[in-house]
């Protein structure tokens, strides 16, 4: 790799400190990782894997809730205020 290309790519790389900060932020957002002294014990790969799993779980929950709202909507009068609220939630 030419030195010019190396300099250009190194400017766009994220610093190790930034990665550490981002991993710390992810750890705080994930319910599966205890907020104790285990921060250093959790590898970056483990945090990223848990993040992906958590996002998949959230997607499943959203799908399930959407299905439940759709079922509820089917039981309501289409012109009712409740039906309008549920339709707004499904959009």
User: Structural class given helices, strands, pairing?
Assistant: mainly alpha
| Topology order in helix (H) and strand (E) letters | HHHH
What is the count of distinct domains? 1
**In angstroms, what separates the terminal alpha carbons?**
49 Å
The outline comes out as elongated
**Integer-rounded radius of gyration:** 22 Å
How many DSSP-defined strands? 0
List the uncertain runs: none
**DSSP helix fraction:** over 70%
Content of β-strand: under 5%
The whole-number mean of residue pLDDT values reads: 85
Main beta sheet, described? none
Quaternary structure classification: single chain
Individual helix count: 4
InterPro entries: bHLH_dom, HLH_DNA-bd_sf, PRE
Organism: Gossypium davidsonii
Main location: nucleus
GO molecular function, one term: protein dimerization activity
Task: Give a structural overview.
One of its GO terms (biological process) is regulation of DNA-templated transcription. The protein is mostly helical. It has one domain (3-90). It is 73% helix and 0% strand. It has four helices and no strands. The chain is elongated and about 65 Å long.
């Amino acid at each position: 790799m030419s030195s010019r290309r190396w300099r250009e790519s190194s400017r766009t790389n994220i610093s190790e400190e930034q990665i550490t900060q981002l991993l710390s932020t992810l750890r705080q957002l994930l319910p599966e990782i205890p907020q104790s002294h285990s921060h250093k014990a959790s590898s970056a790969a483990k945090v990223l894997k848990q993040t992906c799993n958590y996002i998949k779980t959230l997607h499943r929950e959203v799908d399930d809730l959407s299905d439940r709202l759709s079922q509820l909507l089917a039981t309501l009068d289409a012109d009712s205020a409740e039906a309008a609220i549920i339709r707004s939630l499904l959009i």
